[in-house]
Amino acid sequence: MALSLTVNGEQRSLDVEGDTPLLWVIRDELGLKGTKFGCGAGLCGACTVHLDGQPVRSCSTPVDMAAGGQVTTIEGLGDGDRLHALQKAWIDHGVPQCGYCQSGQIMSAAHLLATNASPSRDEIVAAMTGNLCRCGTYSRIVAAVESVANGAPSESKAGA
């Protein structure tokens, strides 16, 4: 089935079955490996991408639902070689441990900040609840999001 969608600002035409999960189209057809497979049931958030500005679990979103839409992956969040403020804050706060959930975490945080530029700590925690982190870096995740929301330069927590 021929489908067309825009991924990270680039129009893409694909010949895939419409019920193929968007995750596998992103990873296998388009070669963008930043979006991760976690649970396959849309529960862990590792596969979160934006579809028309909304966070979706790409492992459980059929590609035909994205047809004609705008998909943003972790690779499209920054501006070329320039990191998005959240990506920089993630590094500065030493968030990643194994790193597996991080692209989904960042995509969820990016949506939060796009819809609420000054979230409270409780709003950050609530927005990030759907993303699981096996390493338990939740306090660092919240600190990184807060630093971007507050517009303050990130304090490096790496090695702390």
Topology diagram in text:
Blueprint (H helix, E strand, L loop, with lengths): L1 E6 L2 E6 L6 H8 L18 E4 L2 E4 L5 H4 L3 E3 L12 H8 L9 H14 L5 H8 L9 H12 L11
Parallel strand pairs: 1-5
Antiparallel strand pairs: 1-2, 3-4, 3-5
Helix pairs in contact: 3-6
Would you mind describing this structure in some detail?
The chain has 160 residues and is of the alpha+beta class. It has six helices and five strands; from the N terminus they run ββαββαβαααα. It has helices at 22-29, 63-66, 85-92, 102-115, 121-128, 138-149, and strands at 2-7, 10-15, 48-51, 54-57, 70-72. The protein has a five-stranded mixed beta sheet with strand order 2-1-5-3-4, sandwiched between helices. Strand 1 and strand 2 (10-15) form a beta hairpin. Helix 3 packs across helix 6. It is globular and about 45 Å long.
Morphology call:
globular
- For the largest beta sheet, what order do the strands appear in spatially? 2-1-5-3-4
Query: Largest sheet at a glance?
Result: 5 strands, mixed
Report the end-to-end length measured between terminal Cα atoms.
51 Å
> What's the helix count?
6
Structural category is alpha+beta
Question: What keyword list fits this structure?
Answer:
five-stranded mixed β-sheet; 6 helices; disordered C terminus; single chain; 160 residues; 14% strand; 5 strands; alpha+beta; globular
What would you say about this model in short?
The protein has helices at residues 22-29, 63-66, 85-92, 102-115, 121-128, 138-149, and strands at residues 2-7, 10-15, 48-51, 54-57, 70-72.
